[in-house]
Amino acid sequence: MLFGHRWIGLDGPVAWSPRSPDLYPLDVFLGALKAIVYKIPIDSDMDLVARIGNAATIREKFGIYENSRQSIRRSCHACVNANR
Asked: How far is it, in rounded angstroms, from Cα 1 to Cα 8?
């Protein structure tokens, strides 16, 4: 299916994988944030905002953030090197 000159449907001209392995490190990081935020029921919008802010400190507590960053960086370097 085309929208203008761009493909927006399934079974397009490029065989993309259904799940990009390049995004996996981000899925792990965001999954950890989501687990912290939604551990107990949320009472209000302000409670949600506060929890998101508190959960963001995960990058300081665990190696998840650094591992995700390094993995994405390695993927970017591999793509650049493959296209040289």
From this structure: 6
